[in-house]
Amino acid sequence: MMPYDLLDVFRVSLGFLVVFGVVPWLAALSSPREDGLLAHCGAFVRASLFGEVAALLLGSMRLCLPGSMAAAYVLFLLTVMFRSGIFRPLRNPQWLRAQLHSLIVFADRLPSAPWRFESAGFRQASFRRVDSAAPASFGQMCLFPALVALAACFYPLNYVRFLNTDTYSRALALQKLTLGQPSALDGSASLLASVVFLSGCDGATVVRFAGAFFTALLVVTTFLVVFRLTASSPTGLTAAGVVAALAAFVNAGQLQAGGMSSIFWLLSILLWRPSRLDAIWSMALALLIEPIPGRDTILYVAIPAAIAWLAISSRALLRCFEAIRAPVALAAIGCLIVVPLESAGHNGPYEYETAARAVSRIAREFPQNTWLVIAPVQELAFTYGRGWHMQLSEFVRRYDVGEVSQPGFHFPFPVADTFVFVEKRPLVSRAVGSGLSALGPRFDPAMAPYQLRLSRVSIEFEAASLMAAYRSRHPEVRVFVEDQNLVVYRIPS
Amino acid sequence: MTRSPKRATTLSCLLPPADSLPWAPPLDSCDVVVRLETAGITDTVAQREYGYHDAWGLAEACFSWLRTFPASDVRGCRQSSLVEYWKGLSFALPLCLCCLAMVIFRFSLWGGDVSPQLAAAVGFGTVSSFVTTGGVVQAMARRGLFFFTVHDGATGEIVCWRWVPLGAAWLAICGLVLLAPCRYYHWLPAPFDWIALAFHLSLGLLWLATGILHMLERSLWSAVATVAGICSVVLFHRTLHVPLVGAQITGIAVATAFAFAASFVFLRARRRADGGRPRALSSALDLYLAWPYFLFGALYFLLIFADRLLAWTVPDIAAASPVQFRGDYETVLDVALIAFVLQVGGVRAATFTFFRNMVRSQKQHGISARAEFLRDMKRAYAKNATSFILLGAAVSTCLYLTASRFSTVVHDRGGTLLGALLGGSLMVIGLWNTSLLFRLALPVDVAAAIAPAVAVDLLIGYLLSRLGSYHYAVAGFGTGAGCFAALTTRNVLRRLKALDYYYLSSSV
Amino acid sequence: MVHRTSVLLTTEGTYPCYSGGVSVWCDYLVRCLRNIDYHIFAITHAPSQQPRFACPPNVTSCVLHPMWGTEEPGTDETNFSEVHERKIRTDRTALLRRFLPHFSSTLRQLFSSDPDPESLAGGLFGLHQYFREYDYANSMRSRAAWEAFLETAAASDISLNLEDATHSMRWIQRYLSLLAVRFPRVDLVHSSMAGLAGIPGVLCKLEQGSGYLLTEHGIHMRELYLHLSRSPYSSACRRFLARFHRAITSMNYHHADVVTCLGEFNRQWQIHFGADTNRIHAVPNGVDPASFRPRPSPPRSRPTVLTMARIFRLKGIDVLIRAAAEVRDRVPEVQFLVFGEIVDQAYFSQCLALVEELRLGDHVSFGVTSDSTSAYAEADVYCLPSRSEGLPYAVIEAMMSGCPVVAADVGNVADLLGGTGLTVTPNDSPEMATALLRLLSGPGAEDLRRSLAHQALERARRHFTIHQFTQRFEEIYDEVAQARHDAVLSLATG
Predict the structure, then answer these.
(1) Is A101 on the interface with B (CB under 8 A)?
(2) Closest alpha carbon within chain B to A179
(3) Which of B288, B315, B462 is nearest residue A104 as measured by Cβ atoms?
(4) Confidence of residue C72 (pLDDT cuts 50, 70, 90)
(5) Domain residue spans in chain B?
(6) Distance (Å) from the C-alpha of residue B223 to the closest C-alpha of chain C?
(7) Is C166 close to B277, i.e. CB distance below 8 A?
(8) Does the domain made of C304-464 have the CATH classification 3.40.50.2000?
(9) How confident is the model over C462-473, as a mean pLDDT?
(10) CATH number of C1-69+183-286+465-494
């Protein structure tokens, strides 16, 4: 863990807090609802749906940019506040004059006599607070998601690389979206667009830490749904713990689209009775994130449902949940810390940690768009929009040893620095998978050459040969980073 | 020996004097009595020398023929519209000197032949200094000009020295507020963000100082200050080999110090000339009177520069930083600025002429002919507006043809130049309307017009620059200026329906 | 506890911010009548005017009301939050229902050639009551007010064009701004002129039942006519101003319980403008005999003629300069000293040019003196060349200092001198020169000077001391206050 990792997690946290905390809170303030907690849930759904739809629509026009998203959110908040009637006093000129009068009195530094409005029609907006009739253990419940988030942050704080193939594609899609570049519509990426803008981080960094926050959100939502169904907080906590452990095993703590959409499926269950419309919005958002619910979604929704059914059907099981809630919670936290580390090993399966660290360091230390990284496709997710990237397969295809070893030959790249990533021990990657995922938005054909072991070894071998031949003629080429698995060469222009 | 009484018509003391002082025929016989007594014609003299019972009788006799004399023709100060035009242009003199320095030395008081990142930093700092201090200068001018108009130079001086520290504090706060996201979001890489802050602060202070000089109608001295600054830059950079940025910051500081010193001298002279002691100032009254001017000042510069900001911040996958200076775009806009400057001098001249004609028309129309007067003034306004349109078209056409011929950059960006020229001409019309509305003490009308114009500028400029290329940002400026011109014209036409009333309510 | 009489002393363009005879009179009054509690209400030209006279302890408050130079007329800029509260309250309903009726009524009287003082006072009082709650500037600057003005102007016989109407309405806005002032509760209002400074007297009388004493030094309407004769305004504007001030003046005369004047000359004018003969009392000015007394004159080589006057046209300095040229021809070593503050810079420049033209540079000098009591001792003759005067203090001071006087026969000067000085026709430089030469050269000049000085001194000590005039005013205060008290009591008892 480096100091800038802490800075990154702080930035991303801030972005999440504003987009998924402050904006829904502001929307909830304007909502005249009986139950404060459900009002906040409904507002959360509406705000998230708005962010998702805005990003998708603007992205389709290549306008998903900081200015337009900011304008969209401002418009959203103004509309919500307008509908709640907060702006009604503005229609009363006496009210405006009274506000100016207050300013004038303040400027005069005089204690003003109480000013009574002479004309009617001025209504104070009432600000609702969180319902005090929330579950007694809700305060305790806030602790568990916080611990889950911390635990789920353990891996991304210490490791830069992703553990899921989809995550690389999501990071790349998010980066393209937020730079106003053409990209395939991806609901799981669009939801994070606002976080990218607010945090000031790139897409890869946001995706890196998003898993932890979404896992925490999933845990909270699970608890709320199970509690609402069973009126039993131990049951809710047990279900939340099981889901957290599931996230650790299934997604290594880095929630994919299924996990993200599960949050909103569960919210739709929660809001079905009190607000049918909000429940429908929640379902719509879940479908936008994952149009065809997959295995993860089914698991994350079915397990809490099953636990709730069990608790309702048998009082004995209810008592059992009371006993096991604490161990389950603790176990879940432990799983979130340990499982990603164990499943990943020290490297791979898609990228060496050294490679991920190297490309992050290059992006941080070197001026933007003045360098070129020649590496497999996984590094593109960290490079896009910050520098230039060339596929290693393309590099070895374009040049051969004979050409490179000619005296006076220079790589014709119009950048200040070129970095070539050569794996000493080519990675063993899992295959792409079934044809179903090949149709998904996150399938990247560029991954194909690197997925089969033999082809990857061949590419890396050729790359190593090219670099050896070039170095023999160009002593200015230095080793930028090297360990037992990987070497990164730096070629100055 | 008796002496026959003199004729009343021989009373030369009642006749218009030979000097050029004002003289008016008497209002009534009472007036004549007063004049007679002042001339030494008491009851005794009236009886003795003119044969009347008393001065009142003599006055009655004199009144009948004296009232036929015309009043002396008091000619007011004859001011030429051309003089007003040159005065209106005088604000642009420092700008012209900077352009000249750029041509000669390849650098000026700010800006020059520098790297794109440095240019972006300087540009960003310059724009932010204008937007930040624009409102303060307008508010200061509003209050200061009032006191100078009523010959209270002492209070006018206090007002200036009160607003300058406020403006400086506001400048510092805004600078820090802008620096924070700049560093957080890496809009400009270090140390360019600090360079932008330095230009923001130093130029902001310079605008505050020159604002005082413009208010005192000493625009020539702001040009002198600019020359002093440029000379300092040349000295430090060329002779002492100080890096250009450091030399420019120093040069701006020299110009600022000079301008403040000149302001101090002129304010003190004005105070001495008017005499009296300064009155107590009320912050509440400042707030009440100055807020629309503050709003206008800030939004005006935002309207002028928003398109540049939008062009510089167009996302570019190949850009070195989020804020990227666009040299070709700037070149075209600078060319269009020439046309703007040539036209904007007419604002002051047109306003002067309009109100002079209005007073003349008021003299010619009685109360019962109010409707004719208002119609006349509406026609005068329309005529002036037409003149502006024709002038704008003529100047823009000449400039477009000339610039396209001699500059390849301009030739290639003809569309951008056209957009900038059109926007500039519309802006001038908006400024003229603003001048009229300010003169009629209706600043809220102006503030209400400029806010939507800025919104339109930002919206159109943003959409087009993001969907097309950064050159299309000028369309935002054009539409924003058009919106401003349209809204202010609507407001002026509305107020022209009761011009006599608004003219009265604006007078002090 | 003995009740002390409280008096609101109102001034315009004089005490305590300007110098001059009326200011000196006010200062004497407030200092000598120490058992009277004074509230000063001074109408000034601009807010930059500051008091020149230190107020004694019996002056309870001193309010300066600038007529011009404020952002809005009638606005207390130092207490703007209260003003703003009234602004918010001033809506269209208040304007139409409560403001316009009084304003229209007032305008009709101001435009009328024969105004009714009662109606005018009623209109002004109604406006004064209205401005307790509502904002002056918003009301007077409203479109409704302008329309009402135009309507009234169109109905009058003054043919105002639109420019004249604008000027006239602006004057009304400024002049009537004192209607927005809240006056203290006093026993008596003492106004130092019959113009705008008299309005508080009428308002306090109607509102509180205070007594109203009006003192005139120069006749307000006379001075207005003189000012208008040399003004650049159009004929219609001048007519309007004359009617405006005439209406105010006649209202003041009508409502004043007592009107004092300086002499018979002024009295005739007051009667002409509508003052009730039975209410007019002559109370001449006075000076302090302890301060102004004959002093040993320092040795001087040149015959000296002294004039103490502010420099503006009515003081006739140009007449004095022409007379000086003639005197110089006969008495080459004569010197003329003119001590006084420059009020009209343009006129002063003309005087300097005249001095230059007549080559009097070594004979005529201008300046100011801080020791006016000693200045008379340094002069052989005091000369008053004014074109218009009331009862000039400078002449009384010269008489009291034992300095012989040559004066233009204006105002009450002849009554003042009573034959103890030489009077000449106003504006007549040769006659003035002749009179001066009688006292400066030729046989018997010194004897004549001594004789006239002695007679003048005797006369001044007998009639024109400060104690006499302040005592007289104290008696008048008591009379007026008592009369009002009795009137209120009789009303109360039915």
Answers:
(1) no
(2) B315
(3) B288
(4) confident
(5) 8-66, 108-281, 323-508
(6) 32
(7) no
(8) yes
(9) 90
(10) 3.40.50.2000
